[in-house]
Amino acid sequence: MRGRARALQRASRHQRSPGGPHRPAPIHATRPGARRRRCLRGAAGRPRSRAGDLARGRSPGPPARGRRAPARAGGGPRGRRPGARAHARPPGSRGGARPLPAGGIGVTDAVYEPAYEAYEGSRTSRLARIGAIAQRGLAQVGSSLWFWVILGVSFLHIAVRGAVLQIGAQGAQPGATPFSASFLADALLSQARFGVTFVLAAVAADVIAEDLETGGLTFYFTNPLTKPGYAAGKGAGPFAATLAVTAVPVLVLWLLAVAFTPEALYPDNVWLLPLGILAASVLVGLVTTLVVAAVSAVVGARGRTAAVWVGLVFLLAAAARVARGVADNADLLLIDLFDALERTTHTLLGIETSPIPELGAWLTVAGWVLVSLAGLTWGLHREEVAG
Q1: 91: burial class by Cβ within 10 Å (0-12, 13-18, 19+)?
Q2: What percent of the residues of the chain are helix, what percent strand, and what percent coil, each to the nearest 5?
Q3: Which residue, 70, 63, 36, 35, is CA-closest to 49?
Q4: Residues 6+ apart with CB under 8 A from 31
Q5: At what angle do helices 355-386 and 227-260 cross, to 10 degrees?
Q6: For the ranges 93-107, 228-242, 319-333, which has the lowest average pLDDT?
Q7: Domain limits of the chain?
Q8: pLDDT tens for residues 253-283?
Q9: Which of 104-118, 214-228, 364-378 has the highest mean pLDDT?
């Protein structure tokens, strides 16, 4: 009440005339914005001209709504003294984005590329931002010489395998055993063991470690984006690389087998085999991409991430061999990730196997997925808190 009385007193002073009686201030004079409107008017109630006030040496009132303030002397930014340092904010970011701390976030010049510029701005849809991150990952895979070398070697491996084991044998012996799902499954898993290990180590080991080193992770989280969306965009590159070195060569082998095998020797599910190959390759790609992304987020260095991934693969293979030599029933003890993927791949391709080992393989794959998701979430959360 005391504050309202003082406001009424101040408003009433503006309404007094030199020889007239005191008139109480109208109620609209105490409403929000009334003081602003009074400052824009002179004693007679006429609108004041800011240019006229400046010419007469008087202090101008505040700018009207919707009118831009004049530039400060010295050419400095509006609302900031000349020479003052602005907050480091990615170009193009608008309202809704969390402001970055003063002094920058340590982002190198490599961050501000066209792919990152497509991501900037809170007005862009979330799907478009994830697509921009995926575009960055695909460009990273395409610019890697190691990827093209290993892809060429994988096609050479498939060509030799098809020529020696399949096409040549059937050409020499017309009554030879037709190609089967088991043959394609063995080819697919040999591709996975050969190509995925080195492709992901050479190409995809730095998907998140690169952003940790350059400060790009802080840049992404400054603009509105969730951690699952960031992980989905970053996983597009290694996932595409995995499909390229597993499914594509085996599908080429399937085409060659269909072309050079008599129709009488076709298996019953010959036209469904490509779907099984794609499903098995997608499973291999999802699991291995999650594992490598988790290692990349936890280790946080590109060179060490590749070394840890390759060492982990060989350590699992060695542990699985030792366990098979010790255990009475080797099928129930699945430690190797690729061993579990091999058994699940046989299931997806329709190969009849024992149900108990297949259940163990699916549980092993599910365990690897959960552990990888936990490691990936912890690594991203740790960096977000540190930033």
Answers
A1: exposed
A2: 65, 0, 35
A3: 63
A4: none
A5: 140
A6: 93-107
A7: 109-386
A8: 888 888 777 777 777 778 888 888 888 888 8
A9: 364-378
User: What does the chain come to in residues?
Assistant: 387
For residue 13, pLDDT beyond 60: no
The distance in angstroms from the start CA to the end CA of the chain is 47
Please state, in angstroms and rounded to a whole number, the distance separating the CA atoms of residues 140 and 323.
Answer: 38
Distance CA 234, CA 383 (A): 16
Q: Kindly report the backbone phi and psi dihedral angles of residue 47, in degrees, each rounded to the nearest multiple of 5, phi listed first.
A: -60, 135
Number of H helices and E strands in the chain, helices first, is 16, 0
Percent of all residues in the chain with a pLDDT value above 70, rounded to a whole number: 53
Report the alpha-carbon distance of residue 292 to residue 207 in Å, rounded. Answer: 9
Q: Is the pLDDT at 92 greater than 80, yes or no?
A: no
Q: Distance between CA 65 and CA 76 in Å, rounded? A: 22
Asked if 150 and 191 count as a contact pair (C-beta separation under 8 A), the reply is no
Residue with structure tokens 């009118």?
67
Task: Spell out the residues 6+ positions from residue 4 whose beta carbon is closer than 8 angstroms to its own.
Answer: 30
As a whole number of Å, the CA-based R_g of the chain is 34
